[in-house]
Design a protein that fits this description.
Length: 374
């Protein structure tokens, strides 16, 4: 397999790493299980990068007639909106990396509506036990403020409605397979079909991996904007007065409501819009030009900052502004792409008004401006 990438050495010189085939499919399978970010969620949906939760490797798929386990899916992931993501891994030299694997995956997808959510949860908890991680913490990393019941309900709903994502992973994707994937992806409304190349580059004790997403088509993206951003597709734009009514009914004390009202005032004057969410969400706010999310406010006072989606020019400014307004111990969590904070933490330091003023400057509004977003 030809090709190289180059890494910079301490002396400024460039070191080539040569593309090299994997010794076995299991090597790539273990990499995906240990480092789900290799699935390139920012390439799947640049406006709303996908985050992954591994349910299980070798997920059992029952025969629709007998009900007995007949096949084994290499990996089952779900994203932050509970969209099941079925992953099959093959080496480029495997002769099955053609029509056979496509037929296999379509059979899995055709019967996914009958999969038991309880079994998915059981496989997830078993996987966490095997990996020595806390299942509740692992789930909370992707579910945010939603309860476990709410999150698994979203998985159940997506399975029932056929909202799935199929991903074929290999070190190199054959052109014949890519043509099939592009055709399927352009024709399907509720299901996304993708190919992902994850070649490895090796040299002098260094190994690098460069994921590249294939199979996206403009036609498919237009037909299926619901996938990859389920929350955005199901959410509707809402006027400021509706946001304020939702805030009044939230389970917060008066100082917290007053503080959040100041943020709503600033955001309503900026170029963007408020959108609804789940029953425990007060609002999410999106930039008007890019359609990317800035923040989600939850009914219990949680604030999830979508720093990964903020325009590059303002991402670090936002991170710095939030950090300065938080207690030092809490601010450490801002290294995450989607840090979750609480309005109570900001009120503790007394720096909320300073943060709101800074956000106003960053997003291009000012606290004194008036206006409503619809």
């Amino acid at each position: 397999m030809e090709g190289s990438i180059f890494v910079t050495q301490p002396d400024g010189s460039l070191k080539p790493l040569r593309r090299q085939a994997y010794e076995a499919e299991d090597v790539l399978q273990e990499l995906l299980a240990g480092y789900p970010d290799l699935l390139a969620g920012e390439q799947v949906n640049p406006a709303d990068p996908r985050r992954w939760l591994l349910i299980s490797r070798e997920f059992p798929v029952p025969d629709p007639d007998s009900g007995l386990d007949r096949w084994w899916l290499d990996h089952l992931f779900v994203d932050q909106e509970g969209v099941p993501t079925l992953v099959e891994v093959k080496r480029s030299g495997n002769p099955e990396l053609r029509r056979e694997v496509v037929a296999q995956m379509l059979e899995y997808a055709a019967n996914a509506s009958a999969w038991s959510t309880e079994r998915i949860v059981s496989r997830f908890t078993d996987r966490c036990d095997e990996d020595g991680v806390d299942a509740e913490v692992e789930l909370g990393r992707i579910a945010g403020e939603r309860s476990a019941e709410e999150f698994w309900q979203s998985v159940r709903s997506n399975l029932g409605s056929g909202r799935l994502r199929l991903v074929f992973v290999a070190d190199a994707i054959p052109s014949q397979l890519l043509r099939i994937i592009e055709f399927l992806n352009a024709q399907m409304d509720s299901m996304q079909v993708l190919a992902l190349e994850v070649p490895q580059y090796v040299g002098d004790g260094i190994t690098a991996y460069v994921p590249r997403l294939l199979g996206q088509t403009a036609q498919g993206q237009m037909r299926r904007s619901v996938l990859g951003s389920a929350s955005r597709s199901s959410a509707r734009s809402i006027p400021r007065d509706e946001v304020e009514r939702t805030l009044l009914s939230a389970g917060l004390d008066e100082p917290e409501k007053e503080a959040l009202a100041k943020l709503i005032e600033v955001l309503s004057s900026a170029d963007g819009n408020f959108r609804s969410g789940s029953s425990n969400t007060v609002f999410s706010w999106y930039f008007g030009v890019t359609g990317r999310r800035l923040v989600t406010c939850y009914a219990h006072g949680g604030l999830e900052w979508a720093l990964a989606e903020a325009p590059e020019g303002m991402r670090q400014d936002l991170r710095d502004a939030i950090a300065k307004a938080l207690p030092p111990g809490v601010a450490k969590g801002l290294a995450k792409s989607y840090p979750l904070t609480s309005i109570r933490d900001f009120l503790t330091t007394g720096n909320w008004d300073l943060l709101v003023a800074r956000i106003a400057a960053i997003v291009g509004s000012s606290p004194e401006q008036e206006g409503h977003s619809s």
